Amino acid sequence: MPLLEIHNLTAGYGDAVVIDGLSLSLDENKGLAVLGRNGVGKTTLMLSLIGHTRHFGGRILWRGEDISSQPTVVRSRLGIGWVPQERNIFPSLTVEENLRVAAAPGRYDLDKVYGLFPRLCERRRNMGDKLSGGEQQMLAIGRTLMTNPRLLLLDEPFEGLAPVIVEELEATIGRLRREEGFATIIVEQRAEDALRLSDDAIVLDRGRIVESGPATHLLDDISAVQKWIAV
Ligand SMILES: Nc1ncnc2c1ncn2[C@@H]1O[C@H](COP(=O)(O)OP(=O)(O)O)[C@@H](O)[C@H]1O
Ligand SMILES: [Mg+2]
What we know:
binds adenosine-5'-diphosphate
């Protein structure tokens, strides 16, 4: 049984439909890339998975159980871990306090997160607003790991970061996928980075899937992907 299935999801804000009849499926330990230009609904899809949008129709199944009407806190407890595009670090808490507030029982604790991100350990007494962009992104991922999810939703994790930091984060996300067994959904405008870290991919345009397939196929025909992303 898939970890996550979406059937004909229609969702948005107020009266506005943003996600328009979208279906997909993700197995345990697998990675999905969600690609598409700005404003096509990538973040809205992530927000719909955690219950932060208006649900118009369709179903979201977690291990076969319909969670479409479950509140955010229940979805988080079930194992959906959201790393927001804005990172949402608490500015007046230290790195360590940012991590501790998210803690839920499970394999991932402070030691494990510091092992994954030694830089966060070095910075553990720094305030949240004294971090570089890369450190903020590490903290955002680390904080979500502290909730001990099964599925990591990464919304543009590389946005605004220097290439050397992107490389470091890619290696860590790859490890989380391949060695630690997390399922991941990576939203990105940097198509190739996301495809290299994923098994399958979808390309969105105006809330609908316009391309989909194994990540390797999309990488082989990257121009078919780029035509939807380049403006
Ligand atoms: N809170 C909101 N209320 C109303 N419309 C929104 C809100 N957030 C996003 N939108 C609209 O939904 C569409 C998709 O946005 P978004 O999901 O953020 O796109 P992406 O992440 O692909 O850039 C855009 O037209 C955007 O203006
Ligand atoms: Mg977005």
